[in-house]
Amino acid sequence: MEVIIDKFKPKVTRPFKRKNEWWVKLITEDGEYIMKFKSPIEAEDVVYGLLDLQVYGGKVKLKLREGNVIEDIEVLEIYKPSAEELVDEYLTK
Q1: Each residue of 5-26: pLDDT tens digit?
Q2: Which one of 48, 56, 71, 88 has the fewest beta carbons within 10 angstroms of its own beta carbon?
Q3: Which domain holds residue 40?
Q4: DSSP letter at 13?
């Protein structure tokens, strides 16, 4: 099943071992998604690879299996605000 999510800004957990696999959870307002890997290095690479999405958010297309397991993630757009918008957001909070 493929799903397109417009405002995808996940909180990403550290990789943890489960059933001889390394899992990473992506927690959003809509729920939790899981990515599974064979080694901890692959899982760590994904955590760092998703930094822009974690910070700015974006539009993604997810290919899901049963149980909200992500088989493939395609980033369609990253919402990077301008420096002025970032300063305004920082000063208004």
Answers
A1: 998 999 999 999 998 999 999 9
A2: 48
A3: 2-92
A4: P
HEC profile for 17-76?
Answer: EECCEEEEEEECCCCEEEEEECCHHHHHHHHHHCHHHHHCCEEEEEEEECCCEEEEEEEE
Tell me, what's the pLDDT at 85? 83
Please report, as a single letter, which amino acid is at residue 36: K
In this structure, what DSSP letter does residue 11 have? E
Strands 32-37 and 58-65, sheet pairing: unpaired
Q: To 10 degrees, the CA torsion angle through 33, 43, 75, 13?
A: 50
